[in-house]
Amino acid sequence: KYILLNYLEPQWAGFYDVLKVVSDDLVIGWACAGSYPNGLHIMTFAMSRRYGFDNLTVDDHDQLFDNGTVPTAQELNGVWQMDIISNNNQLTQAAYLQFDLKPDGTLQSNYQFFGLMEGLVVPSWTRDHFQLNDFTMFHDEIRKVSDDIFVGRYITDSLPDLTSLFNGQNLGIFHIVPSAGGNGGPNQFGFYYTLSRTGKSALPTDSLLQPFLDVQMPDGISMTFDETMVGYYFEGVSTPAPGREGDLTIAARIPASGDPAGATPCSFQAHMTIRDVNEFIDGLAHEAEMTGAITINNQTLAMNAETSLFNYLIVNPDTREAEMRYHIEYASYVLEGRKYMQKSGGNAIADLLGDYTTLYCHVYSRQDDGTLVETGVAYLKFKTFEDLAAVGNLAGFLSSFQVTGTGDPILQLQARLRFLAFTAQFVQREYDPLALPTVSGAAGS
Q1: Could you say which of 71, 242, 378, 404 is the most buried, measured as most Cβ atoms within 10 Å of its Cβ?
Q2: Bigger pLDDT: 342 vs 436
Q3: What pLDDT does 325 receive?
Q4: Which residues contact 362 (CB under 8 A, 6 or more apart)?
Q5: What number of other Cβ atoms are within 10 A of residue 256's Cβ?
Q6: Is the dihedral of CA 218, 219, 220, 224 positive or negative?
Q7: Who wins on pLDDT, 307 or 393?
Q8: What mean pLDDT do residues 257-286 have?
Q9: 90: number of CA atoms within 13 Å, CB side?
Q10: Phi/psi at 404 (nearest 5 deg)?
Q11: Which residues pair with 322 in a beta bridge?
Q12: Distance CA 300, CA 63 (A)
């Protein structure tokens, strides 16, 4: 037996379906144009009561959301695949999300959209949702279904530039949300998504940068570059706390103009040598050797080339944040410097330039028994990046990147590009400098 299905609406009156009930949960059918039984067969389709998450509907999502539990930051920690629910009942792969629970309890998020550079062209109202400046608002919009499956939704007031596109209907992955309680207020719109745990420890390599990062150079190819930093030394000064929190008090000593009180000029000129490009990029230490001279307390002294080291974008195990570390030994003194490479909110470009150009230093005197006694602190700036109008200096810095160990211009170019791709991937994940400005007042910001 079959079921003949006719349509009452005038625009569909020229079509009919023939349905066959296979079981309580499965129906197959023909869609035809014309009049039964002589219509033209257009397509064959199936309708099922039982289906997987790949065919999730908005109504299904609402049921899962209403019956789910509010997740904790600990439960969100990890790398997830985000799939968007479309009105064609087919999940659309959208992005990878990484939630990184820091030792201080804060939850940081990074995202990588499928097939695109991380963070590129993501609308600001979407990006706000995942920035997690306020985790409270985010976890109000996500529910745990199981340890490895979460469902979430982003709902906001209709944006003026999108309202005309909807015309009261759902549009692909965007869905009209009726006003609360049906009180006649303005409708909202949003998108619904699932999060499935990937089991990976980090986001996949950016697809645009992967060809450069995956290149393996022949062993022994090295790279050198020069760096000059200038600033001030505060003898007899210490910080009230260790780490970034304490070091920010050094910056507070620098006035908006003029020299700071109680300080003397301080600077260094360093020549960095990356022994092996592969080891530098792929290893955990990202270590380079340092030679050069440091000027402090009105003396210019040579760096100890055997013990002075530079670590590029190394992860601090205590904070799980990236740092650049400078360990400079000269005469009987040691300078320990840190650049804290972490976005602190606000303008991404300003954050990036500030972190790249600011070095917080502690200076120690080595005693006869080998112990170190702090003698003061220093605040140094990398003027080449800070003042981008100084084109001559910037050009000089870039030209100082030299590749050694090979005369092949192709290998030299690949080495430079691998170093730049490594830097670009970190910058994009941490600072998201290509993102559009945020929309004030957007939900989830």
Answers
A1: 378
A2: 342
A3: 97
A4: 239, 335, 336, 337, 374, 376, 377, 378
A5: 4
A6: positive
A7: 307
A8: 94
A9: 3
A10: -120, 170
A11: 315, 341
A12: 71
Is the pLDDT reported for residue 138 higher than 60? no
| Cα torsion 140, 145, 146, 148: sign | negative
The dihedral of CA 121, 124, 126, 128: what is its sign? positive
Compute the average pLDDT of residues 345-373.
Answer: 89
Tell me the C-alpha distance between 268 and 288, whole Å.
Answer: 16
What is the pTM (predicted TM-score) of this model? 0.71
Would you tell me how many other CB atoms lie within 10 Å of the CB of residue 208? 16
- Using one digit for the tens of pLDDT, what is the confidence trace for 117-136? 444 333 343 444 554 443 33
Residue 162 CB: number of other CB atoms within 10 A? Answer: 13
Most confident region among 155-159, 196-200, 304-308 by mean pLDDT:
304-308
CA nearest to 292, candidates 400, 153, 413, 179: 400
Residue 362 has pLDDT above 80, yes or no: yes
Name the residue with tokens 């257009």.
42
Query: Does residue 357 contact residue 381 with C-beta atoms inside 8 Å?
Result: yes
**The predicted structure's pLDDT at residue 436:** 41
- Supply the angle between the helices 348-357 and 409-431 in degrees, to the nearest 10: 120
Instruction: Report the alpha-carbon distance of residue 286 to residue 418 in Å, rounded.
Output: 13
Q: Report how far residue 115's alpha carbon sits from residue 96's, in angstroms, rounded to the nearest whole number.
A: 11
Closest CA to 105 of 132, 82, 69: 132
Residue 127 in contact with residue 119, Cβ under 8 Å? yes
Neighbour-count burial of 71, counting CB atoms closer than 10 A to its CB (0-12 exposed, 13-18 middle, 19+ buried): buried
Q: Which residues of 77-87 are buried (b: 16+ CB within 10 A; e: fewer)?
A: ebbbbbbbbbe
